[in-house]
Protein 1
Amino acid sequence: MPVGPQHPALKEPANFTFVVDGEHIVEVRARIGYNHRGMEKAAESRTYIQNLYLMERICGICSVAHTTCYAQNVEYLYQREIPPRAEYIRVIINELNRIHSHLLWLGVAGHEIGFDTLFMYVWRDREHVMDIIEAMTGNRVNYAINTVGGVRRDLNDQAIAKARKVLDILEERTKYYKRIAAAEPSLISRTRGIGILKPNDAVRLCAVGPTLRASAIKSDVRKDDPYSAYEEVPFNAVSYDMCDVFSRVLVRVDETLEAINIIRFCLDHLPGGPVRLKLPRNPPAGEAVSKVEAPRGEDIHYVKSDGTERPARYKVRAPTMGNIPAVCDMLTSKADHTVNIGDIPIVLASIDPCFSCTDRAIKFVDPWKEREWIWSHEQLEGYTRRKSRP
Amino acid sequence: MTEAFVEAIIQIAQILIFPGFLFVIGLAFAYEWFDRKFYAKLQNRVGPLYTGPRGFLQPFADFVKLMAKEDIVPLAVDKLLFNLSPLVAFALMLTAVLLLPISSPTGILSFPGDLIVAVALMTFFCIIVFLSGMCSTNRFSAVGAERAIFQLLGYEIPMMLAIVGVALGANSLKIADVVWRQGENLWYIFGPQAIGFAVYSVAVQAELERIPFDIPEAEQEIVAGWLTEFSGRKLALFRLSRDVELVFVAGLGAALYLGGPLGPIIPGLEPLLYTIYFIVKTVFVLVVLSTVRALFARLRIDQMVSFSWKYLIPLSVLQLLLVRLVV
């Protein structure tokens, strides 16, 4: 039974082919790559400043995580620290982004199990956080707040006052949803014991982010390898040990509550000073890797500079990529538990997939001739040249 | 001669116009609108808005639009079944509403045992669902059809037991008798039959394939389930039969538990008042159904069946015992 590339449960194209026995899933084959956009190649042909806007568009939901990662990466190339106020603002915007992303996910999860009322309510409340983001950055989706060397806009008092007010509402609502999640029987019966990912499997399959933390492993880039101002902010890495979808719901709801506290702390302790460091146009030659805890998990960017105004190579590993093997494992029936067709949507959704961020042309598969091959960079270039020859 | 002729004309008008097909179809659109609007209110949305006052004409507009759309018959389907099933489904539901007491305490068709026919028509509808899913030769349709039958195993027995309770109470298998009996005494919803009403409202939710039991057409899992391959006029007919079924189910609920169209009467205005009472009571049933729909997440098929065998059936048996003790 095919799910995708076009399927109501998937908001983006991907294909999962399921071998089913009645209602039970025996095997799953994932096929990604429908939404390859050539971002990395595009990054090589743009300047470092232009790339900010490209990176913002890797993902529509965790846009700021990618720009933070990118900006940090380039700052590592310059080997310069950005002003502390800019670091705090980055943390605030990143956490607001996390709240918005997790609430969005909670709504989608509700929708996937047919609980549309939850979906509508959560998305209504998510508008509050969108409003704060708009007040702070001027935009709702692609905030364009980060820049190489700091942030582009300072926070004004009006936005801060508004944020404080709205955070109270959000906290109350999020706590309410947590109570609902813990008490609503039909929701529990659809998520408890579903999509099991054992801790050792989670590590073996390189799961990241909330998916990993829901399998009892407390791994969070913000804690393990702090960036920006995360070192100075007190917060807990949330983790639950039920290893199922229910535990992923709880992790995300709790992370939303943590994020609210982080933002409050940052607003209270916002240092003064400038928000931006003026840097020379071309970074020195070198390489850098930067990691950011995006709402979906660890986001890794790699940059190689040859001293010109454009990166020589840019590589992005979006978090969903790390979770694809894990979700295939969750969807396969094991000796001790079976997976039903009815569980496909919620289990797929439980990793909060974002396929357009993930897709890379790494392997060519011809499913009809059952042929697979990999091209090197030169071969690929040669192919492009042949094709583009008039 | 002329008298018999006039009589026949009146009967045909009753069947075709009021309170028969035309009225019920109009009511079906109105109830779909009400259901959507009320469901939207519960979810903090506005619901249909643009077509007609407060979006009242939206279901009708949807129907007209679907009628005008391209009607695709896939190559691999069983043509006869595929073309016939929407018609049969629609015909089944129109027949069923003739049994409902709307403008008088007896339906247009009324005979001893019509209660059994009403239940049978609902089950036939489910069989049509299964057949149309299977004849589509689509994987999603097949899974949906399989689920529809599996679901039937879950909800049919508790629903029947609940209705048996009513029949026991009235000592008759005729809907009109059940209604009269409630006119003489209390409505059945006040008393042990209230359990039956609860069971009935949950079970018909499955019959109507609405959340939490919209498993055979679970959008996120199997696209549109058994409906996946239907388009254009066929889909329109299926949707209309669903709406008529909604009227039927709400009307049956009202007839069995809320005293049907009975209420205080001004002589001379009976048909009008009966119709008004019917609408008020069915809307009440509809409110119950829509609220249930907004409150829960969709269950999985195995959870649905075990839920109904663990809770619904014991409840309906309990209701039977209580009714037996009271009567």
Protein 2
Amino acid sequence: MSDWESVIGLEIHAQLATVSKIFSGASTAFGAAPNTQACVVDLGMPGVLPVLNREAVNMAIRFGVAIDAEIDHHSVFARKNYFYPDLPKGYQISQFELPIVGKGRIFISPSEGVTREVGITRAHLEEDAGKSIHDQFPEQTGIDLNRAGTPLLEIVSEPDMRSAKEAVAYARKIHSLVRYLEICDGNMQEGSFRCDANVSVRRKGDQKLGTRAELKNINSFRFLERAINHEIERQIDLIEDGGRVVQETRLYDSERDETRSMRSKEEANDYRYFPDPDLLPVTISDADIARIRAALPELPEQKKQRYVDELELSDYNAELLTSNRDTAIYFETALAAAPQLSAQLANWILGDLTGVLNKTGMEISAAPIAPAMLTQLVARIADNTISGKIAKEVFEAMWQGEGSADEIITARGLKQITDSGEIETLIDEVIAANPEQVAQFRAGKEKVLGFFVGQIMQQSQGKANPGQVNAILREKLKP
Amino acid sequence: MAMSVTEITQGLAAGEFSSVEVTQDYLARIAQFNPALNCFISVTDELALAQARQADARLAKGEAGALTGVPLAHKDLFCTDGVRTSCASRILDNFIAPYDATVIEHFKLDGAVMLGKTNMDEFAMGSSNENSYYGCVANPWNTEHVPGGSSGGSAAAVAAGLAPGATGTDTGGSIRQPAAFCGVTGIKPTYGRVSRYGMIAFASSLDQGGPFARSAEDCALLLRTMAGFDRRDSTCSEQEVPDYPASIGRGVEGLKIGLPVEYFAEGLDSKLAAVIETAVGELRKLGAEIQDISLPNTGLSIPTYYVVAMAECSSNLSRFDGVRFGYRCEDPVDLEDLYKRSRGEGFGAEVKRRILIGTYALSAGYYDAYYLKAQQLRRMIKEDFQKAFAGVDLILGPTTPGVAFKIGAKTDDPVSMYLQDIYTISLNLAGLPGMSLPVGFVDGLPVGMQLIGNYFDEAGLLNAAHSYQQVTDWHLQSPELKK
């Protein structure tokens, strides 16, 4: 395995969040009854013509500007010709030469402290096809053309990635970016964000690329990693057994966790691309680009830098908070009411909150603990109303929907004991009840201090202020 | 009878007859003569009479548009809501269009009446109307001869007085050549002047709709209604539509007309050339200044055209796959069988030939040699015209190398058939407007003269043709019809 190097490039299809389709006025909403969102243009009726939805172009430019890409003033739509029942016109309107977005780049951090640049070859606009439904009519195939004509941005990377982990980091980065840019909802289950991976292997040190296989049908980042690792293994085994890799498309089957050959290059279509004579070339002025650039939201990189510079967060925490747009929104909303608590809020979001979200598979935007609720909780730790330990209990109760931090603290009587007289009484009782341990401590056995603290906290049901307990206890235990 | 569109609008306005009456007259003539001529694929009598009644109501209320109540015929590739739109192909024989083409919409808004849908070469591919699934149209001047194509049904219908005006489309001469063969006036506007939305595409970068009528004056009326910006067609021009009928009385005094030497060279029938020369003489008498010009790349237009048009059609016709509409073969065993047999059985021979040639021209490894090269030649052909128009206002020549040939005379020789379009197709490649008007006869068959204008100078073309028709009566001749 160590003699081999894998080379991976990704083709990502991001469904653009336009209201209507790329070449017709029909709605792009997901989930409608079959063929109710397909107008005569989407159906490929005789005589109809496409009209470009300029909003799709603007979204593509927004992406291009964000990855620092070349954007030509002149872009052309082309027809990609092939027959398929869910492709109504017998060709897909796509781009071949002169895509909207040219060469760009993006930085990924596959692991803490590591940064790599990944080149983006191009990103072009195209229309989606419909769906063939094979499982609803015996012996027949149904066609649903609701999705036909939905705008897609196909983002093609350079073969710059060397492991499945890097490929996933890249895919996550693009996913995060398109959501930041509000050009794609990123929903992988509904197919709004799809990854195809081109995978090849070569012996380390070889300059020449190996023959690649294209992996399709991957609908989660987890499956992306598994599919690529699987394919790398398959190719290495194949070559080491004296075989050779053939250029082909392979489908990933997540249930069996394997890839299967779909079609080989010999059977591949000649798409006969040519400029679509029904559409004029798209012209993009410098003013268009400038206007879109000026309207860009703060992007993850900039946000991360700001968190480090202004909020004094660690590089790692800043990266984690900004990698998902919704997490950053949650953090910034929580921070608004308590700007001095940035580090604590970051820790709670990346620790307990992320933990419970991962466990329940919930999105942060749907979390039952709203940002303001978390702020209140963290503020109560900061003003010594509760200890960090009690806070975990309050957090759990908030997650269960018992109310705000203050309501839970009052209802459960969790307010911290900070009255030194009360604490002294507790300490005296514990010291009196454990003469043996007192002797041990005084004989130099420091560890026993923990025992006393534990006892006192237990007696106080965790409410005694731990700092005060420590200080008074040491004083009282002095020989 | 044989009234003009202008006469009908005047008669309707003056209350001399109603739209229902004039529509009934035309429907009666269609019933009488269409069986022999085969101009119509569908006659929409009931719809026509309903529209005529509505038109009469509109006329009575004084809310008439320019063409309210005028019966017209439409080439059967304009989609007509609720009416079969066949493109003269078996593959669309059962196709009822679910929407109106923009051109049809314009006529409806204006209150015009639709008599029916006219015969044509299948998918507008042909120069003789022999490629129709519904059989050839007969030339009203001599029924053993072709009417030209692809808009042969429309041209013949106007010539035979089965409609005062009709729509056509012109991809390489499909309005002008049948206009010439049938002795009527027809105009192919500048590319982008008339919306292509709802016009079933043959070659998208060349197709353009336009009218046929008995005179330039009538064409001006019809074109004014057909033309105009349409946001549903991205290639449609936003340029304002001039009032064509108001711009045709200007005469040709001082007008510079160029005769391309290449159009009067080898290949042109000498008797036809003599007829054209006589017509040129008339224009000279009217004050036009005639001069020779050169369009040196004329010879390249046929090969260029047949690469561009076939490449585009090979893709445009992919949607006819038997899946969503149109003909589907019986009991397909699998998807490939469904595609192969639906298309194999649904398309005629010429359509298949063009799809095959176009597919070849776009294939990997041939694209640069054919499609890209053709695009370069297309630019050269366009530049020829641009240079010529620096010195002249209009270009004039024959529309066709000869008069209408006999049915069957060229069916075994596609190349000879393609050469029919030698004088017409370079305009489509350049996107320029052109028209054909009758200027005489050879062997009892009409001769068409072609006028070519600069971009968006349809008014200039119509004006010159109208001036000529003011002093001649070739356009007023009608064939004697046999029942």
